[in-house]
Amino acid sequence: MHWFDRLSIYLYHYNRINTWSGNFSKIQGWSSDESQFARFEMIKQAANFNGKHLLDLGCGYGELYDYLSLDFQLAKYTGVDQQHQFLKSARRRLRNERDICQFIRSDISKFTLNDVDIVAASGSLNYQSRDPNYITNMITRMYKIANETVVFNLLDSSTFPAQSLLMGYNKQGIYRYCKTLCSSVEVIEGYANEDFTVVMRK
């Protein structure tokens, strides 16, 4: 992602840290805890996470790990984010899980990792980018990294009007692109008015 786009994202969340101190969902741009958890639930239903290594791109405070741990025992969780304030808090919050959880500061559009079973991205792919191929490049990158499953959610352009920072995507267009990479593609909707989830299974 272009450095100026990354800077815009950084400043957006930095300002929300000061405005919504202690409210993790608001700081990350979610409308509520329920909105965030509705998306997590779709990710949880996408795969069996027991004994798996999950790469969470745009992990925020690492709360997806908590949510999945209610029902699964992950072998490893790697959270990646560019916002150092998020990662500092996540490391402190999950310090007792350090044998399983690691947090890395990086640009998610360039990050790669070996031996990953499942790649997830919740809310982190909706930011505006100067690169017109950003979303297709990200989907391709995630699919190459994952050994088993890719699951991500996107804002729906039919119900979400484009903003200066965020943008929605056409469900059918995303589905058609994913099908060029993967024969097993599922689009899940109905859990939120402005959102859909894509699951790609190898």
Explain this structure.
GO terms for molecular function: methyltransferase activity. The chain is an alpha/beta fold and 202 residues long. The protein contains seven helices and seven strands. The protein is globular and about 40 Å long.
Topology:
Elements: H1 3-19, H2 24-27, H3 33-44, E1 53-57, H4 63-69, E2 76-81, H5 84-93, E3 101-105, E4 116-122, H6 134-145, E5 146-155, H7 171-181, E6 184-188, E7 195-201
Parallel strand pairs: 1-2, 1-4, 2-3, 4-5
Antiparallel strand pairs: 5-7, 6-7
Helix pairs in contact: 6-7
Please sum up the structure shown.
36% of the residues lie in helices and 22% in strands. The protein has helices spanning 3-19, 24-27, 33-44, 63-69, 84-93, 134-145, 171-181, and strands spanning 53-57, 76-81, 101-105, 116-122, 146-155, 184-188, 195-201.
